[in-house]
Write the structure tokens for this entry.
Amino acid sequence: MKNTSRLKGKRAAAIMIVGTASNSGKTLITAGLCRYFSRRGLKVMPYKAQNMSLNSFVTAEGGEIGRAQAFQARACGVKPHTDMNPVLLKPLGDCTSQIVINGKAYSNMSAGHYYDNSWIVNEAFAALDRLMERCDLVIMEGAGSPAEINIEERDFVNMRAAAHAGASVLLVADIDRGGVFASIYGTVKLVKPSYQSLFKGIIINKFRGDKALLGSGPADISKLCGVPVLGVMPFLNGLTIEEEDSVVLDYRKSTGMGSALIDIAVIKLPRMSNYTDFLALETEKSVSLRYISSVEELGGTPDLVIIPGSKNTIEDMRFLNESGLAACIIGSARKGIPVFGICGGFQMLGLEISDPFHVEGETANTPGLGLLPLRTELRPHKELAQVKGTTLKSFRFAAPGTPFTGYEIHCGVTTPLPAPDNAALAINERGTKNGLTEATGVISGDGLVFGTYVHGIFDSDNLRAGLIQYLHSAKGVEMTQSPCGVSYEDAVEKSIDAIALAIAENIDTSYIRALIR
């Protein structure tokens, strides 16, 4: 395909990807199309009007969006921007979510109160309009299914957004879970008649086996719905990609081969956020990474225990105590097993978490695990920043000066108690403020308990390699291969390319190209 960039000043074309259900593959199909068209000369940008997720990303300007849209922006070769996901809902529990508008936390709302705020829809569509003035093609992603008749009048993420953009809608149907033809027919026919004409194509996704087994099914459903089937996507294995929500962990208890030498246990908190912090560790062939939620699952001797981020630190600290995991984590540290905490997990490692402003709820304070000499006070202001830095000599898991990058998303102010050399990291870039070195991260006196606010720290190849080498050495086993044989960033890029290639080989892309001309 030759460069088909549209004339400057014209409103962008738009394609909307909707699904027959959640987890049908919308995010990956959107990312694959973003890469496909951006590699063919178009300036492409992703968009999702509203995302509900505890996996978020911080833009260069300090705004918070869903990680799925950051991933899709990467597929486009553009920097993530808050216009790509203007409304982000971060569930807090009890039918309440933190509402993030245009990258900034606005308020905590119940579902009923949220739907009473029609101005939020205006903000979402204003962001879409801005995107459409800045690029050639916007590839939009819907949420769940567009045929949820119980919320049809309130749904501005699917067909209403498509209509606003004048988008051609492609329906993605997951054949792996069964009932694909019924789900296609039901989705198309349950959508409002005024919206049904927006459907321009169907993609059958996640097919395993010989496509000939589908027989006349695709042609028959096309006739029944009046919408062509554009192709059948195979089930793609071995991708290094971030799933949108932690629900996937219900189907994936552990990663790694049976021969993996290093056992890493991540505590699956009820309100866990940004579990994507650990995807890079999952890619290491010598590592088995387990998500555990009970004492029995933890077992006695993991090589590393990690407490992840949390959207409600105090409630998840209560979970650790009531489940018995708190005592087990303390016992692991006393046995000399390294214990890491990221963001909310970092706060839990300290002596106390206080909430005088009731940021998370009515509980004013709660004791932490007491493994690090620090106290945390939760405050309404949310810190949002991309960071770069290096490790200090006290961080025994990598050589001093090892570089890392990441981002911070937190509402707490953590104060380490006076102690010599307990800082583990040095940050020299925070957002747009560069040139000032800031000691951060806290490590215990014995060097085995470590906490930081930096998300994504394990994505840094050299730091991750140092950690894996340390864990092998501490266990007294030799490494049969070097860690980080392929950089994490390269693995993600190759995965996006693989999705785009699968689309090119299995989907009628010439038909889609005609839709955007």
